[in-house]
Every structure is written in structure tokens, then in C-alpha cells.
Amino acid sequence: MWRYLAGGAAALAMVGAGTLVFGNHPSPAPLLPSQPMASQSGELAADPLADIAPAATDRTREQKRFDRYDKDRDGKVMRDEYLMQRRKAFAKLDTDHDGRLSFDEWAIKATTKFTGADADKSGAMTAAEFATTAVKRKAPARAKCPPAPPREEAS
């Protein structure tokens, strides 16, 4: 009978130890302060991250493209502004600089592009090789965010 009592006491001791070890978790310190922070001007800011987080622009790809063409920033793309981008592309193809794009000049560019994409030199492009001929777009510029202020540790 004493074995049952010793086993019961040991089980109760284990339950008590488990409650002490696993049941008493301190709550973690909040990552953001719960009180509004004072801005540099001394006023309380409604949003504690208002001074830290940069505002995102909602410009579309077409608006960005329009801005690249609109060189004088007057909100209109004039004929010369539009053709300037085309002239640069044309000038790269016009190898003899006569102001005319002959079939041979165009074919040189097309053949060079095909040869560069045909990695296995089989004379035909696979789907993966063809995908390399797509126009390369520049990656969007990353926003330069100011460094985060150092956090004060609670004592």
C-alpha cells in the first residue's frame, strides 16, 4: 500500500513542478511603445511610426513610363520628347549612321540576339532559351529608409 501512496505523492510533485516551470511565463516586452511618442517639435505624435516610416507612392508603371518620356516635366509628352527614346534605339541599330535602317543592319541585330540566346548552338531555341530574349526591365529602385532609432531596454 505504501507504494501507491509514494507513487501518488510523486505524481503530485511532478504536476506541481510542471506548473511552476511551464505555467509562469513572463509577458514579453512590447516592441512598440504604448504611449504616443513626442516628435522633435515637442508635440505628441498620433502615430509613433509617423516619423520613421516613409510614405509610399502610388504611382503606376504607366505614370513612371510617362515621366521618363516627359523630359521638361510639363505634364505633356511632345512629339520630340516621344521620338527621342525611339531615336536612341534607332541609332544603336543604324550602324553606318546614314539615317536609314537597312534590312542588313536590322538582321545583324536579330542574328546576334538569336545567336546569343541559342546556348546549345543547335540552330533552334528552346522555351528556356527564348525566354532570355525578352526585354530586360530595370528593377525598381529601393527606398532609402533612415536607420531605426536605438531601442531603450527596460530595466
UniProtKB/TrEMBL annotation:
Region of interest called Disordered, as start-end residue ranges on this chain: 52-71
Signal peptide bounds: none
Pfam family of the protein (one): EF-hand_5
Highest taxon, organism lineage: Bacteria
InterPro entries (alphabetical): EF-hand-dom_pair, EF_Hand_1_Ca_BS, EF_hand_dom
GO molecular function: calcium ion binding; kinase activity
Keyword annotations: Kinase, Transferase
Domain EF-hand: 81-116
Biased composition regions of type Basic and acidic residues, renumbered to the chain: 58-71
Protein name: Histidine kinase
UniProt source species: Sphingomonas oligophenolica
